[in-house]
Amino acid sequence: MSEQQTVAASVTVRVNEKPVTLTSHRVSGIQIKEAAIAQGIPIHLDFVLSEELGGSRSRIIGDSDEVGVSDHTEFLAIPPDDNS
Hints:
alpha+beta, 7 strands, 18% helix, 39% strand
């Protein structure tokens, strides 16, 4: 029933090819980065996060952007470009 959906299990995505467990299927960019850092992925909050869409395509996920995730969702987090 619908109550089972509200008790939703966690979801494991990949950030920089490493598994990261999230507690929701809808998360913001900052929540993904915070979870990755808490789980030992060597990134920082100012890193640029992008969702890997397959076929060499990706899209940038801002800190406040909400995205739907599944166990097959993959992200790349890279340092910001310091070359101004």
